[in-house]
Amino acid sequence: MSYSDATYLVLFLPLTILIYNLMPQKHRWKVLLIASYIFFWCISKKLIIFIIFSTFSIHHFGLWLKSIQEERNKLLKEAEKESKKAIRAEYLKKQRKVLLLGVLIHLGILLVLKYSGFALENLNALFAMIKIPISFSITKYMMPIGISFYTLQAISYITDVYHEKIQADRNLGRLALFMTFFPQIMEGPICRYSDTAMQLWEGKKVTYQNLKSGLLRIGYGIIKKIVIADRLNIFVQTIFEKYSEFDGGIVAIGVILYTVQLYMDFSGVMDIVIGSGEIFGIKMPENFRQPFFSKTISEFWTRWHITLGAFFRDYVFYPLSLSEPLKKLTTKARKKLGKHYGPLISSSIALFCVWFCNGLWHGAAWSFIFFGMYHFVLILTGNIIEPLVNIVNEKLHIKKENWIYKTLQIIRTTILVFIGELFFEAKTVKDGFAMLNRIFTQFSFNGISTGAILDKNGMDLKDFIIVGIGIIFVYIISILKEKNVDIKKWVFGQKIVIRWLIYYAIIFVVIILGAYGMNYIPVDPMYAGF
Amino acid sequence: MDRLIEILEEIEDGVDYKNCKTLIDDHYLDSLSIISLVAELEDEFDITIPTVEIIPENFNSVESMWKLITRLQEEG
Q1: Is the minimum CB–CB distance between B52 and chain A shorter than 8 Å?
Q2: CA of B33, closest CA in chain A: separation in Å?
Q3: Looking at the structure, do residues A192 and A211 belong to the same domain, yes or no?
Q4: Looking at this predicted complex, what is its ipTM?
Q5: A93 — contact with chain B (CB < 8 Å)?
Q6: DSSP per-residue codes, B28-73
Q7: pTM greater than the 0.90 cutoff
């Protein structure tokens, strides 16, 4: 079962809504919890044990940290002012050990299941290269779907309790629901305890307003996923697998359409996920904010997979760049290198770690590490040349607010994103470079004029037209969103006839133009694999 | 509070710190400025700013930063 499946949309979700609403308010969270465990069982079977373990584990670590904090507070109450600092420091040390153990356990499970094979493979290759007669046997582990997402939620929970941003939760059921809530368990958004736990627990009644608002969002998501993304799948896969058979221009189209597919797939599923939550009155954090209007790569990552970027910012970037050694480095470097390049050194070290983790988080392969490093280099370069760009702009009287300048920035950023996604999807880094080489050295569209492009890859002219219209439709909606137009409010403000025409239009577009049935292979949500 | 504004001006000048309430939201202070700012504030006011406090609400205006500083000083 996945979020764009008929099983989820016409059976699982409606049934859950029905039972949820029939229950008295205080029992509604139980319905969500049972539904979430059924959903997780359907997608991961016996591997459900991992998420159960993680839930028990964070419950325990939360309470452990809480007991240390309570003990400290008791001592602080009775202590003289001078000794308070020492008490705090002593208990901080204790807490830090518990935090470290908790994080290591969760990270350890993820590392073993997801990365041990890759690490050992590379070690074996290294030993063979330097002729050391050691070879590790490699075990391929089964991994529960969603582990990369819920592990980050678990880590954020323990860390937030450690920082006393939140109180440790004694209620195991509430914590279990926070970890497994079915709409977000496969692909996020990566929620913080403070985002969703209490909302999930509340058991608000499903209102007509929430229902229609959630369904409209789900409808938009299904169009993105089934009508656009899934339709592109065969074409994109063919180009990436057999790129050597196509001209550079067509490979470039494949790369652009892969990025379109990834965006429509992931953001479409997010619309379904957030819409599902909305029906239950739960507001989940947004994961996308019109990423293709970004003027720089840094900005792109504040608009694309927002909750992952925010996780790395809050739990890796700031803790590292503000750690004692790096803080000292910043202060020293600022005196010597000035206010821009001074903090750049320590932030670059932290940024490197962020992008190494970001790349690796997507999967255990060199192409993902390359993807991370590619973004690190781009952002670092942007930071290094920023003062120079400012000087040039000033000399040439170019204003940053100028729309031509902004448009050129957006185009540049979008091209850089396309190249990044090329390496993200390419089988190996070598394949990625070969594709890039083909685009730049053999650029032509011969396949299009001879019609070969249409025959080879399972997409006919009708498919391309539908995708084209779909992209224009999503682009218009994105412009409106960028201009802060409340589209839902507009739809719900229309007269009943027009409103229902819109609802029926969405349903018929999905039924008639959806890429499902005999000619299409069902496509699992792309981010569920991470 | 004047010292705080002086520190901010040393880090990023040309911003109307007295009146601006969206220093983070409108990108007047980016992550590089925040890293410098935190180091300076910790030195100047003898406080430790935990990373969990580095949120827009605490850095969007001089007033919110001042509130954070006094709170952390009181907590010792």
Answers
A1: yes
A2: 8
A3: no
A4: 0.82
A5: no
A6: SS-HHHHHHHHHHHHHHHT----GGG-SHHHHSSHHHHHHHHHHHH
A7: no
